[in-house]
């Protein structure tokens, strides 16, 4: 059972976010604020410099191996997978580090309204929030399990077989025990470091998209509930008791009708005690929060647009190259298991990004219909038509997550990447034949 309503603090809502931020700080991707002790800030700088040295050393050895063995398609494909994965991870780390001074403001702009939404007495809204928190917990434990299983499998299997985790060419003889241990440390550290940082950044990004989508859904119902005849509040004690008693399995069995939001909901604390009953004032409040959510999505695109473009290209290479190695060299058990694991991880990562982007776009597209259903035609205020028209123009502009400003993250894009991966896969198998 998961309780999210009774005596729930802000920390419990952001508990997985706080853990993820702590991981990025410990890894050197994010820095501590000025109120933190000097020892922690020095440690963060040390981790950033040390990790970059290890990562650069790792990538250079992989590049060297790929160049030397460019005529061997299997070796080149294997090295290409790791290089593509590194480039995806590094682009996201660079995006976070470049925006580190505005990162917490960005986080707060997305999560602060959710803290207010959780204080609502609307049954449908509380169910939506609980469902989001449940999925957030599932995502966190899944990505944690992924890091532990994949990282441990790579390192332990290499130790058992007595070889390096990945192919590479070092400027020293790795058959000498001391140099072998140094090479093994570089590769093992890089594997664990990038796995942890990459899935942590992805997790934070997915939750930002999830809670932005939730706010778009609430905003849609706010437009519909601008008229005052459907705003009878639910008894707070009854609602909180009911939500707190729900079991996890029950959340998935509740139909969509019970998840409809029937109250005009506040996004800010000062709005909670001052919700107007006037249609025009409510509609203006909706427009204000719509503009705020447009800025949130814009900030997200400004932060991740380039790295998402790299994500799409990297996913394409990882899927097609690992698929090629799985099919072409099935007799190599070690290579088969590793390639299958990377193939599934690349597929799942791309699916997550596109699914979240698809949900956000769908909810944003629903805003126009919600505005039309707001009951504006029954309002006798002067200028209401101009207000509605101006608001609808904003909703008709696409609100979506874009990769490089070119590709929209939707399920159509996901299928397009899979088709392109298959085309490259066919090309590779034909060239090999």
Automatic annotation (TrEMBL):
GO molecular function, one term: olfactory receptor activity
Domain of life of the source: Eukaryota
Stretches that traverse the bilayer: 49-67, 73-90, 140-162, 182-204, 304-324, 336-356
Gene Ontology terms describing biological process: signal transduction
Statement: the UniProt record of this protein carries the keyword Transmembrane helix: yes
Keyword Membrane among record annotations: yes
Primary localization: membrane
Membrane topology: Multi-pass membrane protein
Family annotation (InterPro entries): 7tm6_olfct_rcpt
Keywords associated with the record: Cell membrane, Membrane, Olfaction, Receptor, Sensory transduction, Transducer, Transmembrane, Transmembrane helix
Subcellular location: Cell membrane
Record-level GO cellular component terms: plasma membrane
Family statement drawn from the similarity comment of this UniProt entry: Belongs to the insect chemoreceptor superfamily. Heteromeric odorant receptor channel (TC 1.A.69) family.
Protein name as annotated: Odorant receptor
Organism (species): Cotesia congregata
Organism classification: Eukaryota, Metazoa, Ecdysozoa, Arthropoda, Hexapoda
